[in-house]
Input
Amino acid sequence: MGSAKQAKRRWARDEDIEPFWRNALIEYASSGVSISAFCRKKNISPTSFNLWRRELQIRERERVSAVSFVCDSQLPIFPDKVKDSSGRIIPSRL
Output
């Protein structure tokens, strides 16, 4: 089996594991300690911590990008206020 297939299988979205790592990252952010100290305290591999931190950053970028694409390309966006040429703010009406 090729390494690309192994990587895809390894990083398949696991609905049980992802929340664990999201919570661990949130906990770490508010802990005020180094990654090493946090991982020692939680008995987590620093390598796994960093891999999941990167993976979740990628997933979040993909999610935001997908939402942005839908909003930008498929849904019309109407501002609730506009400025006229003299700078006055005028409410929009649909």
The chain has four helices and two strands.
